[in-house]
TrEMBL record:
Keyword Chloroplast appears in the UniProt entry: no
UniProt keyword list: Signal
Organism: Spumella elongata
Descriptive protein name: Peptidase C51 domain-containing protein
Higher taxonomy: Eukaryota, Sar, Stramenopiles, Ochrophyta, Chrysophyceae
Superkingdom of the source species: Eukaryota
Signal peptide: 1-30
PANTHER family assigned to the protein according to its UniProt record, in alphabetical order: BIFUNCTIONAL GLUTATHIONYLSPERMIDINE SYNTHETASE/AMIDASE-RELATED, BIFUNCTIONAL GLUTATHIONYLSPERMIDINE SYNTHETASE_AMIDASE-RELATED
A single GO molecular function term of this UniProt record: ligase activity
InterPro entries in UniProt: CHAP_dom, Gsp_Synthetase/Amidase, Papain-like_cys_pep_sf
Occurrences of domain Peptidase C51 (ranges): 81-197
Length: 314
């Protein structure tokens, strides 16, 4: 009987040891696979962000080769894609908040390009994956992308956007921020959630797009805090109202209008009206050096972000 007990003990010990070794081996393989899948990337946040994006012709390890913050990497039509420095491929912005967005996230380049080349209001501060569903006046979707249009990817936590520089049968060449360290890339057309174009939008000193009331920064290239009247397409805008605080760009088909509020209690950034602005809760305001720099109405509501982050439209 003692012999039988001893045999059972030895057998159970062997089975247990084998099971433990198997578990440890699986753990080791899993760790190796995790490390192998992300070569050269040491910042966990960079890994998470990059995995959400289609990296085009570049792989994940390319993020680590970005030049210092704000360095011009590539230029198209006089507008440069700038490096996000140590924050390349993450949700952080090495240059903080500036008038055209978070420097130098991908949306900042798209917004700066459309503002400088077409006079589009620089208050498009949403994540890239929201851009196909929410865009300023003067912007529209297109199924026939051209150089100067935007390629927008809507999948992933943040999405991605880039300025198209050349169009091929199945792909587009782009300049971009917060992705490839060269500022250039190539993406498939099929990977786009949409393509956005400014079409015939007027330039910074352009004439009226249509009849109605427009904020100065809504395609007119004028003071963002004033409301102008346009008698028709191609007409010269005339000052209608000095808004006192600022003017709010409304959704397509609606006249822009003046809004009240204050920027005296906040630092530079984007704020919902009920976030220290004392304004309309459904409006996103831009404040710079305690002064208003335009606003836009959020059709789906405005989200108050955590301290230190910009608020944004839902």
């Amino acid at each position: 009987f003692d012999h039988i007990i001893f045999v059972i003990y030895r057998t159970m010990k062997f089975i247990f040891s084998t099971a433990v070794l198997s578990v440890l081996a699986c753990s080791a393989v899993a760790d190796d696979e995790l490390t192998f899948a992300m070569p050269g990337v040491t910042d966990p946040s960079a890994v998470l962000y990059s995995n959400d994006m289609e990296m085009g012709a570049y792989n994940l390890s390319s993020c680590s080769g970005a030049p210092s913050c704000g360095t011009a990497m590539a230029t198209y039509n006089g507008v440069s894609a700038k490096s996000n420095g140590k924050d390349q491929c993450t949700g952080s912005a090495c240059g903080g908040s500036i008038s055209t967005g978070l420097a130098y996230q991908c949306v900042e380049l798209a917004q700066r390009y459309m503002h400088e080349k077409h006079g589009i209001a620089p208050i498009w501060h949403d994540n890239a994956n929201m851009m196909c569903g929410s865009y300023p006046k003067g912007i529209s979707k297109t199924s026939n992308p051209q150089p100067g249009d935007l390629w927008v990817r809507t999948s992933g936590t943040y999405g991605h956007v880039a300025v198209i520089t050349a169009v091929h049968s199945d792909t587009v060449d782009v300049i971009e921020q917060n992705s490839s360290p060269s500022g250039r890339n190539t993406y498939t057309k099929s990977s786009a959630g949409c393509f956005l174009t400014a079409g015939g939008a007027p330039g910074p000193s352009g004439s009226c797009p249509n009849k109605g009331y427009y904020c100065g920064n809504d395609g007119l290239g004028k003071d963002a805090n004033n409301l102008y009247y346009c008698s028709g397409s191609g007409a010269s805008p005339s000052l209608h109202t000095d808004c006192g605080f600022t003017c709010t760009i409304m959704p397509h088909g609606q006249d822009d209008k003046c809004m009240s509020g204050t920027c005296s209690k906040v630092s530079t950034g984007n704020y919902c009206g009920d976030d220290k602005i004392s304004g309309d809760a459904h409006t996103l305001y831009r404040c710079e050096s305690s002064k208003p720099k335009g606003a836009k109405y959020c059709a789906n509501g405005c989200h108050t972000a955590s301290k230190g982050s910009n608020d944004y439209c839902n």
